[in-house]
């Protein structure tokens, strides 16, 4: 499973990219607005840091507006993926953009039927929102598993990108559920690497090493 960072903050992206494990970036209008920068310039800067897919979302609600924005966004960098919402107009725009050879991430998915529609429209990614389903007492990780299974049975190539991932347990659950990718906030990405036994082990190893070196020092 590929690991994506859900952010538009260049400092966060640069830090995690340096680990050598970052596969892509997802952004949305809310994340971009926090940075208070020109959208196009910001996405281009992100694409200079990350060579994998970088999702940038349209904000129009009508088909023609989505197409106009999507076709423009697709020219910003070779690794840009256009995000469209899972609405009737979003599906129509996805269908036309995908036929133009533009990769589309269909976002705000909350059901298997929606995922099937997105795939039929030509979506490159489908983004089921795990955390938001958990918020209404539904199992978001179970939805990821169901979509992945349905795509496998139907030989559908659309990639499952688990979104609204809020905790480390979400990450390992969607990995076991068969997600192709998972996108998460900076805080969650940082939590993946930490474990108290790792920290304790490092402290013990270093303390023993210092003690040994002091014993053999001239």
Q: How would you characterize this protein structure?
A:
Helix 6 (112-120) links the parallel strand 5 and strand 6. Helix 1 packs parallel to helix 3, helix 4 (63-73) packs across helix 5 and helix 8 packs parallel to helix 9. An 8-stranded parallel barrel has the order 1-2-3-4-5-6-7-8, surrounded by 7 helices. By secondary structure, the chain is α/β, with parallel strands linked by helices. The chain has one domain: Alpha-Beta Barrel (TIM Barrel). The chain has helices at residues 10-17, 29-35, 39-49, 63-73, 88-99, 112-120, 130-135, 140-153, 168-176, 186-193, 196-216; strands at 2-6, 24-26, 54-57, 80-85, 104-109, 125-128, 159-162, 181-184. It starts with a strand and ends with a helix. The mean pLDDT is 96.
Descriptive tags:
TIM Barrel, alpha/beta, 218 residues
Order of helices and strands: EHEHHEHEHEHEHHEHEHH
CATH architecture: Alpha-Beta Barrel
Task: Report the strand count.
Answer: 8
Output the strand order for the largest sheet: 1-2-3-4-5-6-7-8
The helix-and-strand class reads: alpha/beta
What is the CATH topology assignment?
TIM Barrel
Q: At the first level of CATH, what is the class?
A: Alpha Beta
What's a quick, concise take on this entry?
With 218 residues, this protein is of the alpha/beta class.
SSE arrangement:
Layout: E1 2-6, H1 10-17, E2 24-26, H2 29-35, H3 39-49, E3 54-57, H4 63-73, E4 80-85, H5 88-99, E5 104-109, H6 112-120, E6 125-128, H7 130-135, H8 140-153, E7 159-162, H9 168-176, E8 181-184, H10 186-193, H11 196-216
Parallel strand pairs: 1-2, 1-8, 2-3, 3-4, 4-5, 5-6, 6-7, 7-8
Helix pairs in contact: 1-3, 4-5, 8-9
């Amino acid at each position: 499973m590929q690991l994506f960072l859900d952010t538009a903050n260049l400092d966060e992206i640069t830090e995690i990219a340096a680990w050598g494990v970052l596969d892509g970036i997802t952004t949305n209008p809310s994340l971009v607005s926090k940075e208070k920068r020109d959208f196009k310039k910001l996405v281009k800067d992100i694409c200079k840091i990350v060579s994998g897919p970088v999702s940038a979302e349209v904000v129009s609600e009508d088909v023609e507006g989505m197409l106009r924005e999507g076709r423009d966004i697709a020219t910003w960098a070779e690794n840009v993926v256009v995000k469209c919402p899972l609405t009737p107009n979003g599906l129509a725009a996805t269908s036309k953009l995908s036929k133009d050879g533009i990769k589309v991430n269909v976002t705000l998915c909350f059901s298997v039927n929606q995922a099937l529609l997105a795939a039929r429209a030509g979506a490159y990614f489908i983004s089921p929102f795990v955390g938001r389903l958990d918020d209404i007492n539904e199992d978001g990780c179970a939805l990821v598993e169901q979509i992945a299974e349905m795509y496998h049975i139907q030989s559908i190539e659309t990639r499952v990108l688990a979104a609204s991932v809020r905790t480390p347990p979400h990450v390992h659950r969607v990995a076991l559920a068969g997600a192709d990718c998972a996108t998460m906030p900076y805080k969650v990405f940082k939590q993946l690497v930490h474990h108290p036994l790792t920290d304790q082990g490092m402290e013990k190893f270093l303390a023993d090493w210092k003690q040994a070196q002091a014993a053999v020092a001239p």
